[in-house]
Amino acid sequence: MKTLYHIINTAKLIGLISFMLGTCLLVSFLLFPNTNSIAITGLYYVSYATITNAIMFLILIITALVYWTYRSLVLRTCGLLLLNIPIAICYFFIVIK
């Protein structure tokens, strides 16, 4: 049971950190639009965040299968993690505008 909550809390933390770092990069890009290093850092960050969040999502799916009685709790955490996708798409359109 302790493992379940550890996995859920880790997923929430990863989702929150992904959101916060992405938002910081977007604000930095908007404040300094002619700086290529921020755009390049953003591209690397998106790659890293995608891989990290995908791995965490797979771990959550496996956890939902293992802890079947707690699947609704685990799947809600998956939903929180997946909320970063539309936010990232919105940020992408802001950057290319």
In short:
This protein is an all-alpha fold and 97 residues long.
Which structural class do you get from the secondary structure elements?
A: mainly alpha
In angstroms, what separates the terminal alpha carbons? Answer: 47 Å
Q: Outline the low-pLDDT stretches.
A: none
Give me the oligomer status.
single chain
User: What's the total number of strands?
Assistant: 0
Helix content: over 70%
Number of helices: 4
What is the overall pLDDT average? 94
Strand percentage lies at under 5%
* Biggest beta sheet attributes: none
What is the 3D shape?
A: elongated
Radius of gyration: 16 Å
Q: From N to C, what is the helix and strand string? A: HHHH
Task: Tell me what the structure shows.
With 97 residues, the protein is mostly helical. The protein has four helices and no strands. It has helices at residues 2-31, 36-66, 71-82, 84-96. Helix 1 (2-31) runs antiparallel to helix 2 (36-66), helix 1 (2-31) runs parallel beside helix 3 (71-82) and helix 1 runs parallel beside helix 4 (84-96). The radius of gyration is 16 Å and the shape is elongated. The mean pLDDT is 94.
